[in-house]
Design goal:
By secondary structure, the chain is α/β, with parallel strands linked by helices. 57% of the residues lie in helices and 13% in strands. It contains 8 helices and 5 strands, in the order E-H-E-H-H-E-H-H-E-H-H-E-H. The chain has helices spanning 16-29, 44-55, 60-84, 95-105, 110-121, 136-146, 157-173, 187-201; strands spanning 4-9, 34-38, 88-92, 128-133, 178-182. A 5-stranded parallel sheet has the order 2-3-1-4-5, with helices on both faces. Helix 1 packs across helix 8 and helix 4 packs across helix 7. It is globular and about 45 Å long. Bound molecules: adenosine-5'-diphosphate (ADP) and thymidine-5'-diphosphate.
């Protein structure tokens, strides 16, 4: 039996973490066994890589390679076994974040990103991706009230503008997979949009 693989994307402060809890509860109420995980991270090795990549200074290509190294371990150790066991895997960020942040934000070319995604994923792709989209200034205001910035979150608005453009490009390339959610509205109004997509994609 093969489970479902669903990812959640958007710039920092979009409200992903806030919504994912409700989404996990929605699937659990249907009787699904849910594996809730995140990138970079999700396994002991990938969480170690996360701590390095979010805190240690490094060049953009090293950052990209560590993101994909963490992803490879996450896929092999957690995501693929969970899917094989029939679980619903909910992943807070996946490869679209590399295209948005290392591609859009840092400016690395698709000729570097595309082959890495091919090798590392080896055909495994989320069946559905929620893209929580909002203006970067609004996301920055939310973050300011919520937490201390890590190395990537400390980037300026123009970085997040480019990252947002990266997500938009990914959505345009895969319109069946990526669903854009207007994340600029209140949490219950975001949830209403998410729930409508879930009900339509996964009817009772
Ligand atoms: N729709 C919303 N409107 C206003 N504030 C929100 C909304 N969703 C989340 N927040 C707040 O914004 C901050 C960042 O939200 P979070 O869910 O951690 O974002 P992310 O996981 O996308 O970085 C938190 O303080 C959260 O309470
Ligand atoms: C998965 C991934 C994340 N990132 C970045 C986006 C975020 O700034 C950071 C960690 O993501 P996230 O877990 O969403 O941060 P937080 O828990 O603080 O909301 O890593 C990349 O730059 N590339 C990637 O491939």
């Amino acid at each position: 039996m093969t489970g479902r693989f669903i990812s959640f994307e958007g710039i920092d402060g979009a409200g992903k973490s806030t919504q994912i809890a409700s989404i996990a509860a929605w699937f659990q109420a249907r009787g699904d066994e849910v594996a809730l995980t995140r990138e970079p991270g999700g396994t002991p090795l990938a969480e170690d890589l996360r701590a390095l990549v979010l805190n240690r200074p490094m060049d953009s290509l090293t950052e990209l390679l560590l993101m994909f190294a963490a992803r490879r371990d996450h896929l092999q150790t957690l995501i693929l076994p969970a899917l094989a066991a029939g679980k619903t895997v909910l992943c807070d960020r996946f490869t679209d974040s590399s295209f948005a942040y290392q591609g859009g934000g840092r400016g690395l070319p698709l000729r570097m990103l595309d082959p890495l995604a091919d090798w590392v994923q080896d055909g495994t792709e989320p069946e559905l991706t929620f893209w929580f989209d909002l203006p970067p200034a609004m996301a920055a205001a939310r973050r300011a009230g919520a937490r201390e910035a890590d190395r990537i979150e400390a980037q300026q608005l123009d970085f997040f503008e480019r990252a947002r453009g990266g997500f938009a490009a990914r959505a345009e390339k895969a319109p069946q997979r990526v669903v854009r959610i207007d994340a600029s509205v209140a949490p219950d109004a975001v949830w209403a949009q998410v729930q409508a997509v879930l009900q339509q994609r996964y009817p009772a």
